[in-house]
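To: structure subgroup
Subject: Chain for Friday's discussion

All,

I'm putting the inputs and outputs inline so they're searchable in the archive.
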Amino acid sequence: MVALTALSFLTQKIIHSKTGHVFLLYCSLQDETTLRLDLTIAGPTHSESLQDFDTQLLGRWWSNAWSEDELTNMLVIDTLIADIVKGELHVRGWSESKARKEDVGLKLVVNPKSDGSVMLPLPECSSTEALLQHKILLDGITEKARTQNCRIFPETALGLREDLAELQAEVSSANRQLKKRDRVIDELKAQLETANEQLKEYVRETAPARPAHPQPRIPPNHSKAAVTKKRRLVQKVEYED
């Protein structure tokens, strides 16, 4: 039962190698000892248009169930899990023209490139059962999402929240670094201004005093206005009567 539990809720997309049609495989436990495989056709590949596809084929459903003993007689369950995860699967027996006319039984080929490949038959369900299986699958997805804050992919939302929180932390850290840098720059500017003022004061205090210019000595008979020139002596001329 432990091995079957590991198969539960496995899903895989299978692209038909010849027609390119997309099939979806879904694994579930019908009960504790029975594995159920469901296969539905989802339409053409993304490169094709639904206008070129017979939409009446959409929703067709194939299903089968095996007990754990039946499965272990055909294959190794761990190998089946690995092949589903790797996509080593092929849908055999599909014919679009035939499917338009009648029910088509398919076979899920596990590890088709290997000599030891295993084919699991999947009979087609009636249209009523197909609708019921779609409803069960959607209900299961919805119930699972309700346990995950109504998200089908909670890890995606969690990852976005974590990325946003990390980005906000980086921005806050960068802003703190910028503010710290601005404070350091302002402090350095203030220190530089103080140092310049101290330097000017030091230069004023330590500069040698300028000597006073002595009054030049005036030689005898020289003019005070022009020390280098001799003074003209003017004598009073007296006349006799």
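Points worth raising on Friday:
DSSP finds six helices and seven strands in the chain.
The CA atoms of residues 175 and 181 lie 10 Å apart.

D.
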